Structure formats: structure tokens, C-alpha cells
């Protein structure tokens, strides 16, 4: 599809119409405090993968509600000193996959942690291993409307909490340098990254690629592509509940987390992206609180964004920040 969103000049000025809840900070402080009442109990089991240049650990830690969450920690073989840590979140429908799907970042000499996404991992890649034990009200197939009746019940309350606990778990390993922690991810993973940036104040950088879960008021009306379309289809059936849904989503909108971010960021956006429309990405980018921010614009790409070219851009940017 050709360009369909705002012109680039207007994208660089776009601001979201999402209304921030008055108790946004209190909601998240209470959520994280409740999660931390459970012991993190991060366990790292060595895995024989046949990868001679890397060492891999099968990780289990305690996330939202005391539920076990899985992950992979990958390190360069023979690492003896704490390494800069990259915590990665995966895209919609995917899981942590298999260890050999994650070779790039540990190959650069960094520690790389991949969080499994609860309840997902059956749409692409090597699958997932983390169930979501929490039920909810009537939902459209997918994850976007699970528990959408109230912020306390919403699916992404559990996921964002898991994501913060994943940082804590990864930092607990003796070969990771907690003082040099970077969060990263693409699409859903990018949206989770933006949320973590607003919830974990001492990250040193974040890398959100074509982030999802940003500027819900615009996203749910400008695109008819899933996953955002799941919300519109739920409302098509549950007539008259739009205000209720908007209230719930406002607690999870990336623009409000971005306004609390106190870390440098490198975003990416694709101007033909119908899954995460460029205006929704720019809404989070333009709200970013830290002055050290940059965005790579891929003019003729859809949701694949910069792909391997952006991997190179991220490596250059990390080096420029001595990470």
C-alpha cells in the first residue's frame, strides 16, 4: 500500500488524543508493588544447544500474580565478567521460540535476555512456553480485548508487569551488568519496550521498533488491520461500550509511558505500515520525555520496517552510546 497516513511534516508534530488517567501512576505503582510481594525466584538452567560460540540458559521467573514466566538468557561462550544487558520482548502471537532463533545480540558480546509472552507463542516462530492462567470476560479472538472491561482485568496489565520483572530477573544473573540495561523489541515487543521505559527508571537506553500499543484513539480508527482491528470488532458487537474501552486502554497507551521515559531512545517507523500506523509511532516518539531520542524512518516499508538494515542501525547507535 502507498502512503496512507499523515505527511511526514505532520507526523513529526502529531500528538495523541489519548487522555491520561489521573491515577495512572498510582495504578502502576500498586500493580508492581503487588507483583513484588512474590519472590522473583529467577532460575537459570544451562541448556546444551550445540552452539559452540554461545552459552544459553533456560530461565524461569515469577511474573504477575505469582505466575511462572519463561525466557532465554544467551551469553558469549566463556564470558567471565558482567556484560551489557539487552532485554528483548517479542511480537504479537510469538513466543520466546528456540535458542538458535536469537543469535545476533549475544554474538556482539552482550548478554541477551528474551522474555516469553504469556499466553502467546502459537502464531509464528518456534513457539512459547508460558501459559496465562488468568481468565476474563467475553473477548474477540486474539489478545487485544481480553479483560478489556476494566484496567485491572486487562491482558496487558499482566504482560507489562511480566516485562518489568523480566528486567529484574535478567539483572540478577552474575554475568549481566544491571547498570547497563537496554530494553528492546519490535511491534508488540516495541510497545512493551515503551511501557518498560516508563516503569523502570534506570534503563540506559531503549530500542522500540515500529511499536504497537501506542495512540489507541487513532490506531483503532485509522487501520482495519489486526491486531488493532480486534478492538473495533469487539465494539461492533458490544455496542455502546466505547467509553469504557477507551478508559481501559488509556492505562496501557504507550504515549503515557513515553511521557515518563528518562532514557535515550532509538525508534523506527515505516511509512506504509498499516499494522502500526506511522502516526501512532510518532505519537509515542513525540511524547518521549528524554531529549536524547532519534527515529529511523523507512519510507517504502510496511510492518517489516527496517528489518536487517535497522539491526545495523541499532548496533551503530548502541556503539555511539558506548553500550
From TrEMBL:
Species of origin: Streptomyces broussonetiae
SUPFAM superfamilies listed in its UniProt record: alpha/beta-Hydrolases (SSF53474)
Pfam families: AXE1
Tree of life domain: Bacteria
Domain (Acetyl xylan esterase) ranges: 1-320
Name of the protein: Acetylxylan esterase
Gene3D superfamilies tied to this protein: alpha/beta hydrolase
Amino acid at each position: 500500500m502507498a502512503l496512507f497516513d499523515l505527511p511526514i511534516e505532520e507526523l513529526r508534530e502529531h500528538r495523541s488524543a489519548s487522555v491520561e488517567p489521573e491515577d495512572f501512576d498510582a495504578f502502576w505503582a500498586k500493580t508492581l508493588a503487588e507483583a513484588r510481594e512474590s519472590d522473583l525466584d529467577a532460575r537459570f538452567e544451562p541448556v546444551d544447544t550445540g552452539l559452540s560460540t554461545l552459552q544459553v540458559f533456560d530461565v524461569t521467573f515469577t511474573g504477575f500474580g505469582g505466575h511462572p514466566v519463561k525466557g532465554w538468557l544467551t551469553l558469549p561462550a566463556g564470558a567471565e565478567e558482567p556484560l551489557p544487558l539487552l532485554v528483548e520482548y517479542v511480537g504479537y502471537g510469538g513466543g520466546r521460540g528456540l535458542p538458535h532463533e536469537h543469535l545476533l545480540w549475544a554474538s556482539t558480546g552482550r548478554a541477551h535476555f528474551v522474555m516469553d509472552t504469556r499466553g502467546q507463542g502459537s502464531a509464528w516462530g518456534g513457539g512459547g512456553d508460558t501459559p496465562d492462567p488468568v481468565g476474563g470476560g467475553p473477548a474477540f479472538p486474539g489478545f487485544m480485548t481480553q479483560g478489556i472491561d476494566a484496567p485491572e482485568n486487562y491482558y496487558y496489565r499482566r504482560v507489562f508487569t511480566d516485562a518489568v520483572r523480566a528486567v529484574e530477573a535478567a539483572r540478577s544473573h552474575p554475568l549481566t551488568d544491571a547498570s547497563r540495561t537496554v530494553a528492546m523489541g519490535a511491534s508488540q515487543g516495541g510497545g512493551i519496550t515503551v511501557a518498560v521505559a516508563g516503569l523502570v527508571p534506570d534503563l540506559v537506553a531503549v530500542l522500540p521498533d515500529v511499536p504497537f500499543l501506542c495512540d489507541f484513539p487513532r490506531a483503532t480508527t485509522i487501520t482495519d488491520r489486526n491486531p488493532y482491528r480486534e478492538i473495533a470488532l469487539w465494539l461492533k458487537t458490544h455496542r455502546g461500550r466505547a467509553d469504557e474501552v477507551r478508559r481501559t486502554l488509556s492505562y496501557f497507551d504507550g504515549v503515557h509511558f513515553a511521557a515518563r521515559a528518562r532514557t535515550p531512545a532509538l525508534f523506527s517507523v515505516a511509512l506504509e505500515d498499516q499494522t502500526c500506523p506511522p502516526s501512532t509511532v510518532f505519537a509515542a516518539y513525540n511524547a518521549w520525555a528524554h531529549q536524547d531520542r532519534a527515529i529511523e524512518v523507512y519510507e517504502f516499508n510496511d510492518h517489516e520496517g527496517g528489518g536487517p538494515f535497522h539491526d545495523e542501525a541499532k548496533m551503530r547507535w548502541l556503539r555511539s552510546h558506548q553500550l
